[in-house]
Structures are given as C-alpha cells and as structure tokens.
Amino acid sequence: MTQENKNLVTNFSSAKYSWLKSGGIISHLYKIYNQIDLSTLFSRYDIKAKSLLVIGNLSNTLIKDEGFKGVGIKLLGDFTNVQINSDHMLVGSAVLDNFLSKFCFQKGISGYEFLYTIPGSIGGNIFMNAGCYNQEIKDKLISVIYFDINDNKVYEKNIRELKFDYRKGFQKTHTIILYGKFKISHGDQKNIKKLMQEYEGIRNYTQPQKVNCCGSIFKNPVNQSAWKLIKSSIDETFYNGPIKLSKTHSNFFENDPYISANSIDLFISKIQKRVKEKHKIMLEKELRIID
Ligand SMILES: Cc1cc2nc3c(=O)[nH]c(=O)nc-3n(C[C@H](O)[C@H](O)[C@H](O)COP(=O)(O)OP(=O)(O)OC[C@H]3O[C@@H](n4cnc5c(N)ncnc54)[C@H](O)[C@@H]3O)c2cc1C
To answer: Which domains does the chain have, with CATH numbers?
Structure first.
C-alpha cells in the first residue's frame, strides 16, 4: 500500500458524519496529518487541477446528492494540537471549538468561552468567521497560517490584512487553513466556567437540541433578524414533515437522518422565495451547500 493510499478514503459518506446527517459522498477524501502530506499530495498536477473541498467538523456543510468528485481534504494529526507560547496560542485547524474552550478554561485563559457552544472546528470557524454572544473568531485571532495549493507553500497573514466580516472569514480559493494564532489573556477560572455555563444555558433555552441541524440557515440581514422575516412569511406547513422549521427558532430546520440533501436545498429555496415575496429581501445562506 502506498503512503497516498493509506491516506485516501474513497466514497466517504458525509451523511454519516455531518451534523445534518444528510449529504452526498466525497469520492476521494485525503487524510492529511502534517505539512509533508500536504506538499506531497499537491505536488501532483492531476490533484492540483481538481476542485478542492476541505471539511472540518461538517457542522455547516451540506453536500448535494450527486456528491463531490474533486479532492476532499480532512486535517488530522499535527493539526489537532494546541500549543501555548509566551504571547499567543497556536491552534490547529482540526481542533474542535468545545475542546479549545475547555482547554482554555483549564489553563485559565479567558475569551474563548463562546466557543464552548459552537460545534465546529477552528478551521471552519476561521473560514466562516464564526461567532455568538457578540463575539467572533476574528476578535481573538492574531494571524492565519494557510497552505496555498497553487504554489505549494505555507503563508501567514495578519488579521489586520484580512477583511473578515459577519460570517465571512478566510475564504481565499485554493487554500487550506492550517492554524490560527490566537491572543492570550488570563482570567479567573471561576468566571470562565460561569460564562461557559451561562452561554450553554442560553443556547439550550433558545435553540433546538439533539436534532439534526446546521445552526442558523441564513445570515441576518443588516438590522433584521432572519427568524422574524421567516416566521412572518411562511405558513404552518413549514413546521411539519421530514424537513421542518424548528418551533423553537425559525432560522433553524430539523431533518430526518439520511434524507436527500437536494430536498433540504429545495426546502431552503422555498423559504427564501417566501421571504422575498413578503419582504423583498433575499436571505443569504449561512449553510455551505456544495454542488
Ligand atoms: C447546533 C449548531 C449550532 C451552531 N451555532 C453556531 C453559532 O452560534 N455561530 C456560528 O458562527 N456558527 C454556528 N454553527 C455553524 C457551524 O458550527 C460554524 O459555521 C463552524 O464554524 C463550522 O465549523 P466546521 O468545522 O463544522 O466547518 P465545516 O462545516 O466542516 O465547513 C464549513 C466551511 O469551512 C470550510 N473549511 C473548514 N475547515 C477548513 C480549513 N481547514 N481550510 C479551509 N476551509 C475550511 C469548508 O470547506 C466549508 O466551506 C452552528 C451549527 C450547529 C449544527
């Protein structure tokens, strides 16, 4: 077995691992453990020429039923580590939010309590500029370290040079986010824990729990709440069936496992259409739908 074959998973079922429990197959998913794996893989022209999809914790991604036939990338190994240095933390893209938040609590580092309730990975956070409770990942970032597949090199960009916006982070094409360098500030462990529990409490109260979902379906338009626009545009039928809006939060849907991804996409389009008709506003999807 060649090294490449060891790292390659064929016909990876995104439905099995995604938070939606729905989604097509990734025909070729490469497990990348370190930077050598990356440069070896992308030194191949046939690989470089294909379209790229990096997956994190699949909490904000839906792959359509036809599947993804390009090069899928899953970071593991070196990218699952957190390293504390004198003035920053180096966090691998594959580190999960909940893990980092708990890690920071243990080390008495404050400011990462909000990540306790987001089910993504640091790479996905940096891509999306994820956030909640008036905090975003960009507020904590010093720089992003990424791999550029075109020139097969690793670069570092300071957050000041990057134009992060609401749910729009590092979305440079042909790149793979490897690490984030994050700020460190120390706090009282008791206060850190209290805030984590407070955020968890709010989440449990305001959002559906233990269901297949992707978090918010749409971004909030400027000075508007997507859930209010949705609630005022649709009828009761949207709250029933195998894909239905959540009664707890109208910008969330819940779906039966292994339901067709294309039918979820269609459901989302129907909501968009209703809101457009009623409010003349085209809601922008937060969920990443991959063709
Ligand atoms: C129950 C629930 C609650 C949620 N609450 C919130 C919330 O409060 N706030 C919020 O912002 N989001 C929330 N989300 C959405 C989601 O958790 C975030 O968008 C998160 O940042 C996605 O991370 P992920 O690792 O799951 O990314 P994935 O879904 O795997 O990927 C998302 C995008 O990032 C890209 N990507 C991932 N890793 C990399 C990488 N290393 N390099 C390049 N591109 C990469 C993918 O290609 C894809 O386009 C919620 C989701 C769920 C299911």
So the answer is: 3-77 (3.30.43.10), 81-192 (3.30.465.10), 209-290 (3.90.78.10)
